[in-house]
Amino acid sequence: MTSGEDMLELEAGLKSIAEAIRPIVHVAEGSGRLTPIGSAFAVRNRGIRYLITADHVLAGLEDKLMGVDAEFSTRWPRSFSRLVSDDSTLPDADIAWVAIRMFEETLEVGATIPLEQTIARVAGGDANGFMAVGHPVSKSRMVEAQSAVASKLMMAQVRIADEATCVAIGIDDRVQFALSYDSNNHTDLAGRPIVPAQPKGMSGGVVVATTRANDANGKSFMKPYVVGVLTRFYPEHRTYVATKIEHLWKAIGILPDNDRLYREMTGSYIRAADV
């Protein structure tokens, strides 16, 4: 493929991922005022759809609304699942999710990412690039639920953080990875710069790795994979932190045909717990 064809394939893949990433807002008790607090995304596997976010985004008793499309938001359930660890040496994975069976009317889902576009882990040396994608928090408060889904999606070109940064912020590479960013490398989905870039609110969004894949005819093309869930950011280090998404799938019990990745995972099994 030519580089132009590569870019078209990559842009199409990124757009399909971006459509499944939603803002989350909390509803103030009494006034009903909406305040943006984070991001979430949806993945489908056979007859189940998973709504996934960072666990800390759901803290507090206020109702949370999640965007579904440009005109509609839905309430995040009070009951959901989270990841916990039996190993006290491991950091908090900070991932929460809801599993919804197809055709259940309990929660609107909207666009989803296919599981096979998330389950492949891409090592730093194998990826052509990384992006952090989510809905940054706006300083303005919202008065209409529909405003939540209209907030601007942000994409940040990022790179694997150096060892000194990882040590400074306490990264445990059994569970997490860190990605450094430049403030001038944040854009909307159309590639327009977002200035000033405000990473707050990206928690619960995704880390996308771009790598080469082959189609049925053996032709090579660029393909984006979701490899992590954004959980924290450190503005003083210009660094995002993400939890490796394979811990979520292992906890749920979704295993790929080739389970080499799971055999190579270090640290205690991170299991699911309901709240």
CATH class: Mainly Beta
How do the helices and strands follow one another from N- to C-terminus?
HEEEEEEEEEHEHEEEEHHE
Q: Biggest β-sheet: count, sense, barrel?
A: 9 strands, mixed
Overall pLDDT? 80
CATH architecture classification = Beta Barrel
Attribute tags:
5 helices; mainly beta; Thrombin, subunit H
In brief, what are we looking at here?
This protein is mainly β. The chain has a single domain, classed as Thrombin, subunit H (Beta Barrel), CATH 2.40.10.120. 15% of the residues lie in helices and 40% in strands.
Explained architecture:
The structure is a single chain. This protein has 275 residues and is mainly beta. The chain has a single domain, classed as Beta Barrel (Thrombin, subunit H), CATH 2.40.10. It is 15% helix and 40% strand. The chain has 5 helices and 15 strands. It has helices at 3-18, 146-150, 163-169, 246-252, 260-264; strands at 21-27, 34-45, 48-54, 63-69, 72-75, 81-85, 95-101, 113-114, 129-134, 154-160, 176-187, 206-214, 220-234, 239-244, 270-274. Strands 1, 2, 3, 4, 5, 6, 7, 8 and 15 form a 9-stranded mixed beta sheet that branches. A hairpin with a 4-residue loop joins strand 13 and strand 14 (239-244). It is globular and about 50 Å long. The protein starts with a helix and ends with a strand.
